[in-house]
Amino acid sequence: GQQLNQSPQSMFIQEGEDVSMNCTSSSIFNTWLWYKQDPGEGPVLLIALYKAGELTSNGRLTAQFGITRKDSFLNISASIPSDVGIYFCAGLNYGGSQGNLIFGKGTKLSVKP
Amino acid sequence: NAGVTQTPKFRVLKTGQSMTLLCAQDMNHEYMYWYRQDPGMGLRLIHYSVGEGTTAKGEVPDGYNVSRLKKQNFLLGLESAAPSQTSVYFCASSRRGDYGYTFGSGTRLTVV
Question: pLDDT band at residue A113, thresholds of 50, 70 and 90?
Answer without folding.
Answer: confident
